[in-house]
Amino acid sequence: MSDWKRGIRENLDLRGLGPTRQSEIVEDLAQQLDDAYRDGLARGMSDDQATAFAWSQCPDWPGLSRELRQSRRGAIGVLGRLEGRAYDAEVGSSRWSAWATVAQDLMFAFRLMRKAPAFTAAAVLTLALGIGANSTIFSVMSATFLKPLPFPDPDRLALIWETPAKASTDTNISTAPRFWDWQRQNRTFEHMALFDSAGKGYNLGASGALREAEQVSGVRVTADFFSVLGVRPFLGREFRQEEETAGKDRVVVLSYSLWSRRYGSNRNLVGQPIRIDGERYTVVGVMPREFHFQFWSDERELWVPAGWNDGDRSRNSHSFVAIGRLKPGVTVAQATTEIAGIQGQLAKQYQEDRDVSALVTPMGEFGLENVQRVTLTLLAAVALVLLIGCVNVANLMLARGAERRKEFAIRRALGASSTRLARQLLAESLMLSALGGAAGLALAFWASRVLTRILPAGFATLPMRPLDAVSLDARVLGFTCLIACVTGVVSGLVPALTAARDDEGQPLKDGGREAAAGGRSIVRHALVASEVGLALVVLVAAGLLIKSMTRLIAVDPGFDPKNILTAEISVPQVNMYYGPPEHPRFCEEIEDRVASMPGVLSASAAAHLPLRGNAGRGFSIEGRPEPGPDEDGPGGAYTVTCPGYFRTLGVPIKKGREFTREDRLGSPGVVVINEALARRYWPSEDPIGRRIRIGRRDAADWLTIVGVVGNVRHWGLAQDTRPQLFRPYTQAAWPFMRVVVKTVAAPATFAKSVRHAMLVVEPDRPVSEIQTMEAIVRGSVGTRRFPMLMLAALAGLALILAAIGIIGVVSYSVTQATHEIGVRAALGAQPWDVLWLMTTRSMSWVLVGVAVGAALSSVATRLLKGMLYDVTPADPVVLAIVVGILSAVALAASYVPARRAARVDPLMALRSE
Amino acid sequence: MLLNTATKYTSIPYIKHVHTVFSRELKKGSTELLVLALLEPRPRHGYDLAKLLESRSGGRLALRVGSLYPILVRLEDKGLLTGRWVEKPGERRRRFYRLTAQGRAVLSEQRSVWLDFTGAVNQVLGGERV
Predict the structure, then answer these.
(1) CB atoms within 10 A of CB A70
(2) Residue A591 carries which DSSP code?
(3) Which of A142, A315, A316, A906 is most buried, by CB atoms within 10 Å?
(4) What residues contact A588, with CB distance under 8 A and at least 6 apart?
(5) Nearest to B65 among A29, A67, A68 (CB)
(6) A509 pLDDT exceeds 50?
(7) For testing the chain B interface, which of A25, A41, A57, A69 should be mutated: the one with the most B CBs within 10 Å?
């Protein structure tokens, strides 16, 4: 008798077979040798003889080894060899053992995933959708407001505003004379500058090879403008101080894109003349390629010196935005104190400065509120969707965990601690979320490209932050890794804890299933309830935004946008915002040339289109006392129109008339007001015939009110209408007019002919931005439509994920309860009794989820307040509809698998254990 | 490397190693068929099978464990057999092999093939009958 196994192991070479298989073979052979030994003894051999007889059963060890190695069962690949090494390492030195166990866990997890492709695919897909959506939204954040300003030392850049009183945040843009005083007296700014807040289109004349005129967006700036921003032209120079005065200001700095696009990147362009607005300008500089400037506008392509005109010199003419670069070490608060102090002194010196104070704000934070609000809301929504996905994955893992209970029990019996098992499960969920994260990144890559195209204009024209593309940069990658890790932990937590808490020894006995199943099933149903609750929150948010949008587009804009084509044209004049017009026949020629085209019903123009904002003017009313020095005088939104404008736009004329050709320069000054202005200042009298005077200068003429028109929503559909006054173009012009053309139908098809007709009216002044009025109306709600669409898509996704979760849990419950169903059926229950039972069990949990979700949503939707129009966050109708939809979907999701329960054969059910 | 105990090999009465009656190839191919046939009635373990083979063939077919075991492994790999560890009280556990459904199918097919073949061979070998 000898140690069979030891001898076999010494002689048999089974490399390439897994350790389990090797043990199996050794044991089998050992047993057979032992049988041979006993057989020998039984035949009368001695112990030695029987032993030798047994060993003689295997004379050819190499041959036997060779044959057995060819057995494909239990052959291990690379993964197994690594696992083997990790196993050895764990048993060996402790320095590597910690890593070794982690490596073992991960490899084991990878194996399991390969063995269960359906589970892995479902889990990875769910996580990929959730993580991908999060990464996409974060990439929008990263491309917009998480980016610092694209200028050197951006923390030192600031904006300086005028305010009505000290410490007020009601900001207004600045006036030039006040700015000059600040600039002269301050000690906190390194450089200060102004730029024209509106800017305008500049007509580049056709010249030489460039046969076509072109209109580009440009802005007037002071000499220190580029110094404030910290970027110098790469060709040529900036403006000089003396070039700011009118007459010496016929110089221009071009943007890189204009220089390369229109002037062929001609390095000799500096010092050459080009024609702008019919005048000769000398190019003095070209900005570098990386320099982009936009502020309340599209990107600017050229800069000209301020060239102060009379209007600019008034202390009441708010036309400029003031920017400054702080000295190193100076804070914004210190600057505010100083400038406000200077302004306080000025208030004592000048009548006009009496109610004016100043405020300095960091440039990096300006203009981001809307984008921040929308993006953060979307981020919250996708986080909820991801959470729902995690719950689904946790449920999937719990279901698999139930199948693997025997495996865990055995491992536990072999000495694995609960922590070790929990760690194993966490490793699995981390691996799933890593795969999901990788797939999610791919999704985000595609989605961010799509997003770049559909982002509303408000995102692309953030002040100082031009958006080229939404891309996946290092920040987004880091964010994705982070949420993949968090996701892995969150989805693995509940399965890990449940496995760790499992009762030892129970699952090894048959019939131990039910007790454990009961406890586990509560966990799964509770998870589903939480899913339902989260889905409800997202659905309610989407519902509120949708309702808000429907309310918004139902608002009467005050005019008829159908069949109207618009275009912008730059008609420069000396006194930019006060007139008189250089081309007084502008309006008449539009009527003659454009309105006379076939298919055109009427044509006119105005300085500001509806929904696009307005200028403003204060005025005084004849016969009423001038307001005291501390009071606000009457004022209103202000714009300039051609005759026939209201008729073209379909704005009703309530009283009196609109402008006609008779209202010319030299005729008595006239003004038209809207109903809001009439109601505010002449509530009980007829304003027709009354006279007002715009501005407080005594030199201004009295203007007679000749008409009252209906209210138009000039600041957006969501804004209330404000008092408004209109002046005829011929008497008080504007350098940048918008032409409106009412056509019979299909306004977009008239673009070319309108363009040609306008070139006849204003040669060398091409129109730009040709759009239909309906497109403008649609665009005005674009900033709301975008989050609404996104949230609706997310709500749909949340609903689908929740439904999948419910289906999974209910079908699993049905399988678990097969025995119970059999008992019930045997005791006389009808199929639909069973169906009812299963469905109500599931639906009671769903209703718990709905209740919790409704409570959550009442808190969460308060975040949406700023984005809603005419809808309260606690809107009961929306909540009721959402609860209805969710319950219906949950009912369907419960019903489908529950039908299986009704069809269970009672005998089969009773027999199954 | 042969086992050291092999040097203690002494002559063993009774057991004859018969290897001249049939050539190796013939033995190899048909042994698989025989193993399948022997497992048809009931499952058996390795050594038991070897002894049965020897006794049924009257001592003419004797396979050692080292020769029979690879055959069992091969048949199990092909899916014609399956092995199960069985523990009887008081004994070490043994691996019992039994036919699978596929094994049964192959066995009945090979049986008829074998009978056809041997019938043909016999006819040819038998020569012409007078």
Answers:
(1) 14
(2) I
(3) A142
(4) A661
(5) A29
(6) no
(7) A57
A383-437, pLDDT tens digit by residue? Answer: 999 999 999 988 888 887 777 777 777 777 776 777 777 888 888 889 999 999 9
* Sign of the dihedral defined by the CA atoms of residues A318, A321, A327, A331, in that order: positive
Distance between CA atoms of residues B126 and A646, nearest Å: 121
C-alpha span between A678 and A684 (Å, rounded): 9
- Say if the Cβ atoms of A36 and B70 lie within 8 Å: no
CA dihedral A641, A645, A651, A652 (to 10 degrees): 100
pLDDT tens digits, A657-691: 999 988 888 888 899 999 999 999 999 989 999 99
Yes or no, beta carbons of B8 and A35 under 8 Å apart: no
Which three-class secondary structure state does DSSP give residue A746?
coil
Name the minimum distance, in Å, from the CA of A414 to any CA of chain B: 20
| Full DSSP string of A523-542 | HHHHHHHHHHHHHHHHHHHH
Q: Which pair of structure tokens corresponds to residue A686?
A: 């007829």
pLDDT band, very low/low/confident/very high, at A653 (cuts 50, 70, 90): very high
Residue A32 is nearest to which of B14, B15, B47, comparing CB atoms?
Answer: B47
- Choose among B21, B51, B23, B2: nearest CA to A58: B2
ipTM of the complex: 0.78
| Identity of residue A102 | V
Element (H, E) at A621: strand A615-621
Question: What are the tokens at A873?
Answer: 């966050």
A104 in Cβ contact with A86 (< 8 Å): yes
* Contact call for residues A262 and A204 (beta carbons, < 8 A): yes
Report the pLDDT value the prediction gives residue B35, as an integer from 0 to 100. Answer: 87
| Omega before A580 within 30 of 0, i.e. cis | yes
A368 sits in which H/E element = none
> Residue B20 corresponds to which tokens in the numbers above?
């001249």
In this structure, chain A runs to a length of 913
> Distance between CA atoms of A779 and B114, rounded to whole angstroms?
87
pLDDT value of position B16: 36
The Cα of A87 is separated from the nearest Cα of chain B by a number of Å equal to: 26
- Separation between Cα atoms, residue A69 and residue A59, nearest integer Å: 17
Q: Which residue has the tokens 């993580």?
A: A131
Count interface pairs A-B at CB distance under 8 A.
Answer: 94
Distances (CA, A) of B12 to A29, A56, A416, B15, B21: 22, 11, 50, 7, 21
What does the alpha-carbon distance between residue A384 and residue A46 come to, in Å, rounded to a whole number? 79
B11 chain-A contacts, CB cut-off 8 A: none
Calpha distance A429→A493 (Å, rounded): 9
Count of Cβ atoms closer than 10 Å to residue A611 Cβ:
22
Amino acid (1-letter code) at residue B51: K
